[in-house]
């Protein structure tokens, strides 16, 4: 999303840049890019930089098409620091942390990354045996998380030592036959390491001493976690090839199943006014306007409510796995209701996954003039950060305008697949920097030395710079990329590599 600093980079429009770029000869652009590339020899580059510049890859850490991210679950009894460890791994304060047992009740998933390898991280509520009521639901979701994980981190309090509950958790973990590492948390310094000796008695092998609060030992734990995790998840079976995959997402009861049934011309999935009828993703190969697609109807993503059955958490993880295997996400919004925080969270989930995005405004046949005025205002305010996503107004119940999904999907996937030649991209960057150079910060003005598109799906660009570029300036680059090259329906990633000039000997 934009912020107050974005105004520094606003201008009258991209028309002049487009005209100049269209007038640049391809060979001239390539020669200029080669000159800029040669100039990087004066800067300190690492092996990964050189491989990127030569068009190679340091290591192919991306998943094959159709594969799902591996899943790492964090379990343990209440108040041992699971959420603090999640925050430390994510590098941001995401999970709620409080010095009271049982703050985390729902099983919550996050997209994480370590050493360039992405994975799904699952934070669970504290596990208690023989629990009743809400506590029983918390224990059930922890067991579901283990069942649906590729590997598990079992967190214990090293200061308290092993407890009877910890021993019960160990028995549950052994029965799951999943790879497990024992994490001894709250080892804040060397003096506390002696406390880990008792934990060998749990029979899970070497305890990994960490301090989630201070970060001590977490990097070593993550290195070990990557050795446990498979390259792609064994939780969900991937499907490779065939028609392009479309995930239908949205809150419960927005019409996802109705849309799939209408597009398939049969009652493929159960439709009910009761929210949450769909639990598992349902695949269906369908034809719309002469084009074949593979649609996946997913479970509605709820607010983080205190649900009584682990099946809802199972459905949430399956939904996320379905999105990981899809190429484009169609987010359905009910136009008869205000756009909610849950709607925005689902849109952001698609962005974080790096998939193409289409917004489908459902139940359009039920929209009256008063609600239409409010809806337009909500779209302008709440969905401004995805103004580039194609919008389609449909009625899943009647089938009205379903055929308009096809051009929207095609446009989004075309944007997702787009590549810009290196010469033309550097010409674009040169024009942009000449018209709107980065502001001086702290007496220095960062310069962009060279740029290249490192990949597509989604389009990912790398800028070699002499200093850190403001987030607002990077958003400005993204916005101008869209204005000049389109990139309809796809997120754009702009990464930086700040490099210093080589010291002359």
Summarize the structure.
By secondary structure, the chain is α/β, with parallel strands linked by helices.
Task: Write structural notes for this entry.
The chain is an alpha/beta fold. It folds into three domains: 138 residues, K homology (KH) domain (GMP Synthetase, Chain A, domain 3, 2-Layer Sandwich), CATH 3.30.300; 158 residues, P-loop containing nucleotide triphosphate hydrolases (Rossmann fold, 3-Layer(aba) Sandwich), CATH 3.40.50; 160 residues, 3-Layer(aba) Sandwich (Rossmann fold), CATH 3.40.50. Helices cover 33% and strands 18% of the residues. The protein contains 14 helices and 15 strands. Strands 2-3-1-4-5-6 form a six-stranded mixed β-sheet, sandwiched between helices. Strands 8-9-7-10-11-12 form a six-stranded mixed β-sheet, sandwiched between helices. Strands 13-14-15 form a three-stranded mixed β-sheet. A hairpin with a 2-residue loop joins β2 and β3. The two termini are 45 Å apart.
What fold name goes in the CATH topology slot of the largest domain?
Rossmann fold
**General shape:** globular
Distance between the termini: 45 Å
CATH first level of the largest domain: which class? Alpha Beta
Uncertain segments: 1-5, 56-61, 95-107, 132-138, 268-281, 303-311
Treating each run of at least 4 consecutive H or I residues as one helix, how many helices?
14
The CATH architecture of the largest domain would be 3-Layer(aba) Sandwich
Report the radius of gyration as a whole number of Å: 25 Å
Q: Per DSSP, what share of the residues sits in E-state strands of 2 or more residues?
A: 15-25%
What string, H for helix and E for strand, traces the elements in order?
Answer: HHHEHEEHEHEEHEHEEHEHEHEHHEEHE
On the 0-100 scale, what is the average pLDDT? 79
The largest beta-sheet arranges its strands as 2-3-1-4-5-6
Instruction: Count all strands and give the number.
Output: 15
Alpha-beta classification? alpha/beta
In quaternary terms, these chains amount to single chain
């Amino acid at each position: 999303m934009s912020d107050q600093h974005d105004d520094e980079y606003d201008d009258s429009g991209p028309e002049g840049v487009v005209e100049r770029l269209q007038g640049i000869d391809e060979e001239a652009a390539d020669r200029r890019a080669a000159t800029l590339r040669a100039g990087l020899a004066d800067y300190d580059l690492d092996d990964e930089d050189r491989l990127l510049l030569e068009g190679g890859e340091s290591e192919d850490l991306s998943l094959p098409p159709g594969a799902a991210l591996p899943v790492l679950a964090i379990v343990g009894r209440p108040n041992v620091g699971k959420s603090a460890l999640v925050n430390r791994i994510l590098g941001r304060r995401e999970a709620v942390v409080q010095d009271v047992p049982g703050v985390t009740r729902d099983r919550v998933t996050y997209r994480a990354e370590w050493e360039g390898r992405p994975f799904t991280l699952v934070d669970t509520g504290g596990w208690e045996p023989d629990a009743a009521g809400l506590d029983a639901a918390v224990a059930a979701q922890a067991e579901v998380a283990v069942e649906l994980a590729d590997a598990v981190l079992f967190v214990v309090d090293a200061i308290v030592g092993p407890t009877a509950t910890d021993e019960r958790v160990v028995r549950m973990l052994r029965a799951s036959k999943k790879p497990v590492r024992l994490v001894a948390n709250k080892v804040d310094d060397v003096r506390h390491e002696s406390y880990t000796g008792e934990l060998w008695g749990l029979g899970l092998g070497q305890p990994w001493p960490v301090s989630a609060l201070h970060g001590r030992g977490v990097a070593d734990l993550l290195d070990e976690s990557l050795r446990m995790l498979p390259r792609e998840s064994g939780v969900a079976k991937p499907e490779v090839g065939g028609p392009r995959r479309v995930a239908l997402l949205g809150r419960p009861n927005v019409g996802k199943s109705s849309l799939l049934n209408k597009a398939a011309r049969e009652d493929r999935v159960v439709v009910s006014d009761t929210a949450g009828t769909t639990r598992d993703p349902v695949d269906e190969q369908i034809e719309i306007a002469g084009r074949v697609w593979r649609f996946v109807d997913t479970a509605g993503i709820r607010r983080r409510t205190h649900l009584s059955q682990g099946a809802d958490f199972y459905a949430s993880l399956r939904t996320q796995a379905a999105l990981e295997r899809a190429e484009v996400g169609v987010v359905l919004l009910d136009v008869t209701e205000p756009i909610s925080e849950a709607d925005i969270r689902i849109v952001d989930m698609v962005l974080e996954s790096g998939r193409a995005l289409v917004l489908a405004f459902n139940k359009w046949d039920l929209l009256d003039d008063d609600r239409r005025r409010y809806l337009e205002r909500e779209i302008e305010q709440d969905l401004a950060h995805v103004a580039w996503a194609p919008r389609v107004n449909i009625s899943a119940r009647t089938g009205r305008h379903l055929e308009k999904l096809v051009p929207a999907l095609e446009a989004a996937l075309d944007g997702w697949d787009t590549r810009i030649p290196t010469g033309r991209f550097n010409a674009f960057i040169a024009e942009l920097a000449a018209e709107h150079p980065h502001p001086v910060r702290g007496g220095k003005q960062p310069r962009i030395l060279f740029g290249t598109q490192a990949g597509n799906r989604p389009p990912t660009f790398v800028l070699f710079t002499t200093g850190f570029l403001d987030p607002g300036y990077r958003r400005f680059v993204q916005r101008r990329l869209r204005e000049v090259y389109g990139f309809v329906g796809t997120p754009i990633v702009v990464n930086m590599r700040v490099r210093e000039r080589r010291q002359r000997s």
